[in-house]
Specification:
Number of strands: 14
Strand content: 25-35%
Radius of gyration: 17 Å
Strand order of the largest sheet: 3-4-2-1-14-13
Order of helices and strands: EHEHEEEEEHEHHEEEEHEE
Number of helices: 6
Helix content: 10-25%
Largest sheet: 6 strands, mixed
Active site: 110, 151 (proton donor/acceptor), 251 (proton acceptor)
Binding site for Mg(2+): 7, 34, 151, 153, 250-251
Site (Transition state stabilizer): 153
Keywords: Hydrolase, Magnesium, Manganese, Metal-binding
InterPro entries: AP_endonuc_1 (IPR004808), Endo/exonu/phosph_ase_sf (IPR036691), Endo/exonuclease/phosphatase (IPR005135), ExoIII-like (IPR037493)
Length: 261
């Protein structure tokens, strides 16, 4: 089975490319982030025509997460307990959706950006990640296969950014963010993509300043799996080619190959 995650940066703007890619990549399940639409605006019909069921969680033109599956889609959860809120008035944003696909519990996650080290949004980000840590530990204790997939807005290692000097005073690489990411790992999951990639294999390149052709990217999209699932992962790839061309998302899809149980 092929499972993927992809921040598409607006599903309505990107649907033609997503449609073509899922067929070309032959993925069974796709976790999507930044759908940037309400439920009534999501292109369910385009996925259905390709044989995918979709569960979507979107409230407005910001954030939004989804899971598309052609191997079953059961027990859908939008968010998880005790998630912190943000905004005026404060609300629980559309940043997490879970579903069981072919016996594997999968979560599509869009972790808050944090904006800047001193921004209040950074405290929201860290609180959000700590809530995820608590949930991850509880899920890991069940001994069942699951994965946390998505845009984490964190580059946990120096090799995950094109220049640490450039990012030293910016978000995504700060010690508190990296500690929060490590805490999730320590709660019972492992990065199942890194063993199959090399330093400099990034997943995100800004649209500005010719970042993509200059290879000025970051690795911030991850698939973290529990041990029962991690031991079934046979391969992984970051599809950098999908970042090329007109109308591309600023993120590349990340794919893992999972053996049957």
């Amino acid at each position: 089975m092929r499972i993927a995650t992809w921040n598409v940066n607006s599903i309505r703007s990107r649907i033609d490319r997503v449609e073509a890619w899922v067929q070309r990549a032959d993925v069974d399940v796709l976790a999507i982030q930044e759908t940037k639409c309400r439920e009534d605006q999501f292109p369910h019909d385009r996925f259905a025509a390709l044989g995918y069921e979709v569960a979507h969680h979107g409230l407005n033109q910001w954030n939004g997460v989804a899971i598309a599956s052609r191997v079953g889609l059961e027990d859908v959860s939008r968010g998880f307990p005790d998630l912190p809120q943000w905004g005026e008035p404060a609300v629980e944003e559309a940043r997490a959706i879970g579903a069981t696909c072919a016996g594997i519990r999968l979560w599509s996650l869009y972790v808050p950006n944090g904006r800047h080290i001193t921004d209040p949004h950074m405290q929201y980000k860290l609180a959000w990640l700590d809530t995820l840590r608590v949930q991850t530990q509880a899920w890991a204790e069940t001994g069942s296969p699951f994965a946390l997939m998505g845009d984490w807005n964190i580059a946990p290692q120096d090799e995950d950014v094109w220049s640490m000097e450039y990012y030293l005073d910016k978000s995504h690489v700060s010690p508190p963010e990296r500690a929060a990411f490590q805490a999730v790992l320590d709660a019972g999951v492992t990065d199942v993509v890194r063993p199959h990639t090399e330093p400099g294999d990034f997943t995100y390149w800004d649209y500005q300043r010719l970042a993509f052709p200059k290879r000025r990217g970051m690795r911030i999209d991850f698939i973290l799996a529990s041990e029962p699932l991690a031991e079934r992962v046979q391969g992984a790839v970051i599809d950098r080619e999908e970042r090329k061309g007109q109308g591309a998302s600023d993120h590349a899809p990340v794919v893992i190959e999972v053996a049957d149980a």
